[in-house]
Amino acid sequence: MTSTFILGIESSCDETAAAVVRSGEETISNVVASQIATHQPYGGVVPELASREHLRAIVPVVRQALAEANRTYESLDALAVTQGPGLAGALLVGISYAKALAFALEKPLIAVNHLEGHIHAVLLEERQKGNRELQFPVLALVVSGGHTHLYLAKQHGPNWSYENIGHTRDDAAGEAFDKVAKLLGLGYPGGPVIDKLAPHGDARAVKFPPSQIKHSDRKTPSREAQSAETRGGRARTPVTPQSHSRFDFSYSGIKTAVLRYVETHNMARSIDERRRGLAEVGKASLEDYLANCDEQTLDLIASFQRAMVDDLVSKTLAAARQRHVATLFVTGGVAANNELRRTFEQEAAKEGLPVYFPSRPLSTDNAAMIAAAAYLKFLAKDFAAMDFSAEAGMALK
Ligand code: KG4
Ligand code: ZN
Q: Which of 7, 149, 171, 207 is the most exposed place for a label (fewest CB within 10 A)?
């Protein structure tokens, strides 16, 4: 079979990314320009700054992806770009550039849902390893800074369809990691720092009550569904009111519980000292973080991470049991978390359920996943009309 080379472009949040993928199964190049340094002083993504940084990075990032793939623009079969969900201004940078490039090169352009991209990151790498045996239905937990969604994925011929069977009612899991890290003076983004520090604390030290979702509001549209507005700098995916949200998540409560713990245990001064200490260091290593954290803080971090992991794993497995799924995918930025991976592997093995994660570079935002998701659309000739625009609250169906 002839090879198909697709250039993927991703700019939905705070990473400008471009990649060349062959036939949805081999990453030829994968370039990611992170904006972490830009947003770090603000403790979260600032949408206006994100757009400006995408504008700066998009041309060199795409050029680098082509150069590393050792391919010319003319040799591409198609271009693919993230349409949504994400920050509208950020998405528009990638979309405008992809449209201009596709028009000039007279190549087809494919619009991709970012969440489908995260799911296809798993498939791309499994195909790359030679694993083509995938049992359906697949349950995919997409867990990142902007999303905590459970999708039941089914295959219809070459096409996939998705049913959302759970979502967060308030904060996404990655957002909780980021907010707790900020609260504790650990900087941004919080997930990777908490991941590294948690093994140094006692996860049994602080008890967090399991998040509770009231039955009475299960049938009503969530706050997410009512508004596709960005909160905390990240765009949310609307969930259709008719979806049966049986496996919902809620992470604003645990963030408040950490805040209350900090207040009642008079930790404000030590947090201030840590913030100043780490600011003086600049790019902090694990040793720097440890030197600036007392035992009480490390215990709190470990307990927080354990509570998050237990909740994500238990709800996902409950959904898998109820919907009789054959395979589990865990993907998105938080899927890079070591304890989450370990716990999923242990608990899924008890149920005889295979669980797949992307490698860490493909867990967080990247464009290889966008080019991989575009491949099936390329085969189906599902090309975007040139007047399509960004969809900040794009749902996955
Ligand atoms: O998928 P992603 O790059 O962007 C979004 O689509 O949101 O995910 C970024 C999120 C951030 O909240 C970050 O703190 C979290 O993923 N994250 C982690 C880890 N690495 C990144 N959370 C927990 N443990 C990690 N190792
Ligand atoms: Zn993402």
A: 207
